[in-house]
Amino acid sequence: MPAIPPWSKEAHLEMMATANITKSILSISSPGTHITSDVSLTRSLTRECNAYAASLAASEPQKFGFWAALPLPDVEASLEEIERAVEEGCEGFGLMTNYGGFYLGDERFKRVFERLNALGSKVFVHPTKPCTHIAQSTGGVHADEIAEGEKVDATPFGAQYPIPIFEFFFDTARAVVNLFASGTIDACPNLTFIIPHAGGALPPLLTRFIQFSSVVPGGRQLDAAKVRAQLDSQFYFDLAGFVFDGDEGGQGQLKALVDGFGIGWERLVYGSDFPFTQTRFVERFAGRMKGGLECLFDEEQRAMIYEGNAKKLLERGKIAKSASL
Q1: Which residues contact 300 (CB under 8 A, 6 or more apart)?
Q2: DSSP 41-104
Q3: Which helix (H) or strand (E) holds 238?
Q4: Confidence band (pLDDT; 50, 70, 90) for 36?
Q5: How far is CA 301 from its chain centroid?
Q6: Strand 151-153 relative to strand 131-133: parallel, antiparallel, unpaired?
Q7: Which helix (H) or strand (E) holds 236?
Q8: How far apart are CA 126 and CA 317, in angstroms?
Q9: d(Cα 146, Cα 143) in Å, to the nearest integer?
Q10: SS3 of 274, please?
Q11: According to the UniProt entry, where is the signal peptide (predicted)?
């Protein structure tokens, strides 16, 4: 992120009143709580953030809920934090697309996803800075300065453009593709994912990564009908960002997602991106959204997108504190 804007409970409630939002599900945005290699800092920061979010939700349950953060890539600490957050009443968990270059779906995270699946959890995925690990020296420029296994940023235009402009969309696609290709979605049928920004750069890649799965040596072959069924049953997409285009808002990214890739209104929910999107822009985007949704959906469908789908999502499959280990 170019900068992290200030946030307060009072400012958030003011934004909600301005945009006619009745309840917010709070979460940690990029860069998440894994901001340095200091494991103890990641653990303590995650715990502090979740405890604070839980206190907000407990003090005003009609206004706030929260997606709990996890101190990934620390698996043991994450398993412990899952149990604490469930006891504190989280609605689900908010995960970054990658943690130091380890993407959702990585084998390292298998036990975390197994536990989340056992809980029937909801997982909100938020993009962050893309990065990778150097498996071996490539002999390229400055290769001698990069240690094998070291994390490096994968942002070739990072010096020219703020990373959220398009790198976030690409990282969303990487994470979701890896969740499917790794077999995580197959192994976790009880998980429900919420993907921001109308899927980012994922939709145009759906057919491509499914079809190529059959020709990649050693890869997992994906079935198009099964992936479609999983998208229709395990995935929601929020409408944060610039997903509406055209004079009336009926063109652009959302129309492509709905008309081009068959994602129904039942899988769409509102998203604000506050505070990175300031209150005045949240209000402006709400007006743009009104016009765009009116072009694409009838009144009953719009009501579900604005409120009904989110209510069903939150009411369905409440995480049980007594779920067995």
Answers
A1: none
A2: HHHHHHHHHHHHHHHHHHH-TTTEEEEEP--TT-HHHHHHHHHHHHHTT-SEEEEESEETTEET
A3: strand 235-238
A4: confident
A5: 23
A6: antiparallel
A7: strand 235-238
A8: 22
A9: 5
A10: coil
A11: none
User: Is pTM beyond 0.90 here?
Assistant: yes
Phi, psi of 185 (to 5 degrees): -65, -45
pLDDT average, residue stretch 222-240? 96
Residue 325 has pLDDT above 70, yes or no: no
Amino acid code (one letter) for 247: D
Distance CA 125, CA 67 (A): 10
73: preceding bond cis by omega (within 30 degrees): yes
Give mean pLDDT, residues 11-34: 96
Which residue's entry shows tokens 């949704």? 293
Q: Is the pLDDT of residue 163 over 60?
A: yes
Q: Which residues contact 28 (CB under 8 A, 6 or more apart)?
A: 49, 69, 94, 126
Listed range (59-63, 154-158, 227-231, 254-258) with the worst mean pLDDT? 154-158
Q: Are 99 and 34 in contact (CB under 8 A)?
A: yes
Counted residue by residue, the chain has a size of 325
Q: Give the angle subtended at the CA of 25 by the CAs of 22 and 28, to the nearest 5°.
A: 145
Annotate 187-224 with DSSP letters as a single string. Answer: H-TT-EEEESGGGTT-GGGHHHHHHHTTTSTTPPPPPH
Per-residue model confidence as pLDDT tens digits over 167-194? 999 999 999 999 999 999 999 999 999 9
The C-alpha atoms of residue 214 and residue 258 are separated, in whole angstroms, by 26
Closest CA to 254 of 225, 299, 294: 294
What gap in Å lies between CA 240 and CA 244, rounded to an integer? 10
Residue with tokens 């997903």: 243
Domains of the chain, each with CATH number or no CATH: 9-315 (3.20.20.140)
